[in-house]
Design goal:
- With 414 residues, the protein is of the alpha/beta class.
- The protein is built from 13 helices and 13 strands.
- The strands form three sheets. The protein has a seven-stranded mixed β-sheet with strand order 1-9-8-5-4-2-3, with helices on both faces.
- Helix 4 links the parallel strand 2 and strand 3.
- The structure holds pyridoxal-5'-phosphate.
- The site of pyridoxal-5'-phosphate (PLP) has 14 residues, from helix 3 and helix 4.
- Pyridoxal-5'-phosphate binds next to helix 3 and helix 4.
Length: 414
């Protein structure tokens, strides 16, 4: 019998960690009020939430949508991305970052990430810019802001739009301003795993009134703010949020600041302990320009060479057995998904091989070495675990230290 829980020893922790979503009577009351009011549809509460969330992130306008995915689509449409346009995206992200580009007939072009931050690498992005590039979608992965100084400089040098995928970064700030309010526009998700949630939902933020009006039109059946109810100006869709969702989100928003600060303080405790383990590399950025960071995912790298034959997946198995919920995250870079391997083909090969597209992409030849490494090395701990107290962080760090100390036992056991 070994010392590790996986080899028959006792686990560091048997108590559960905080669960998600967090809710109390305030959510019940807010939803009940909407139900009783008989006004369930895209009205006052939606407007109130759009304004409140935009203000929270420091943007002027908020346009809600049914999801982060559809918010990305209206952002791209508002920015004028369409057939033949290339949009640079990271491969280490959720599929929507790239599939939204295809949905508007644009062509996603993958650039590599920086392993130190897991975010898009501005210098790799610059090498992929062509005269067909229209926009960049940097993802603030896990909640860590990208280097917005570098991306803003790139965008102005090349005349590009920046659409921030802020679907992990509610509450994050770069130089004191919220993510999603830094580029031309930014997009958030309120799906149930997210740090503020209504089950599903999304929003686009911007300081640009014209972009906000366009996005509103695309999300509301192509209507315009001055036209009549049955007048349709754009090829829009119905991506409207309901009053029930907005009522929930307003309550969720009231907890966001405190929860963000708590996760950040706990992540700092973990960082201090894990930095001392040679088999682990932190994915964080000790940069004074990151004035606040949301943690949707606390991620670190498993440095395989240091572990004497233990694999990342075995390490995670051992960590879970110690009572610490953790996972490997994205298994492959986006371009390795079947959708891209068969060249993202729509009817007649659109949009990657059709007469509107003058370039050439071959996703079967795509290589982003850092993203591939991160898919093999990343370990994720989800945000709700960081809502605990300092003794919970002790358990997490203690369990990782224990697996590290007994790595040879783990290597020999399998
Ligand atoms: C980085 C990123 N972008 C976009 C999305 C899409 O958001 P939704 O699930 O609300 O459509 C997600 C959701 O997981 C995400 O993680």
């Amino acid at each position: 019998m070994g010392r590790l829980a996986l080899t028959g020893g006792s686990a560091v922790r048997t108590r559960p960690f905080p669960s998600w979503p967090v809710s109390d009577e305030r959510e019940v009351e807010a939803v009940t009020q909407v139900v009783r009011s008989g006004k369930w549809w895209y009205g006052e509460k939606v407007r109130e939430f759009e304004a409140a969330f935009a203000a929270f992130q420091g943007a002027t306008f908020g346009v809600s949508a049914t999801s982060g995915t559809t918010a990305l689509e209206i952002a791209l449409l508002a920015c004028g991305v369409g057939a033949g346009d290339e949009v640079i995206v990271p491969p280490y992200t959720f599929m929507a970052t790239a599939s939204a580009v295809l949905r508007v007939n644009g062509v996603p072009v993958f650039a590599d990430i920086d392993l130190a931050t897991s975010n898009l690498d501005p210098s790799d992005v610059e090498q992929r810019i062509t005269d067909r590039t229209k926009a960049i979608i940097p993802v603030h992965f896990g909640g860590l802001p990208v280097d917005m100084d570098a991306f803003s400089a790139l965008a102005s040098r090349h005349g590009l739009r920046i659409i921030e995928d802020a679907c992990h970064s509610w509450g994050s700030q770069w130089r004191g301003k919220g993510t999603g309010a830094l580029g031309d526009c930014g997009v958030f998700s309120f799906q149930m795993s997210k740090n503020i949630t209504s089950g599903e939902g999304g929003i686009m933020l911007t300081d640009n009134e014209e972009l906000a009006d366009q996005a509103r039109g695309f999300s509301n059946c192509g209507r315009s703010k001055t036209g009549g109810w049955y007048e349709h100006f754009l090829l829009g869709s119905n991506l409207r949020m309901t009053e029930l969702q907005a009522a929930l989100l307003l309550v969720q928003l009231s907890r966001l600041e405190e929860q963000t600060e708590r996760r950040q303080a706990n992540a700092r405790l973990l960082n201090r302990r894990l930095a001392a383990i040679p088999g682990i590399a932190l994915i964080d950025w000790d940069d004074p320009r990151v004035t606040r960071r949301s943690y949707h995912i606390y991620a670190f790298r498993f440095l395989r060479d240091q572990w004497g034959g233990v694999t990342r997946d075995r390490f995670l198995e051992a960590l879970n057995a110690e009572g610490i919920p953790s996972s490997a995250g994205y298994p492959i870079p986006l371009y390795k998904n079947p959708l891209f391997q068969r060249q993202a083909d729509g009817p007649a090969g659109c949009p990657v091989s059709c007469p509107y597209y003058q370039g050439h992409v071959d996703y079967t030849q795509a290589v982003c070495p850092n993203a591939e490494t991160l898919c093999e090395e990343a370990c994720w701990i989800f945000h709700q675990i960081l809502l605990g107290d300092a003794s919970d962080m002790d358990d997490i760090a203690g369990a990782i230290e224990k697996v590290w100390e007994h790595r040879s036992e783990l290597a020999q056991a399998f």
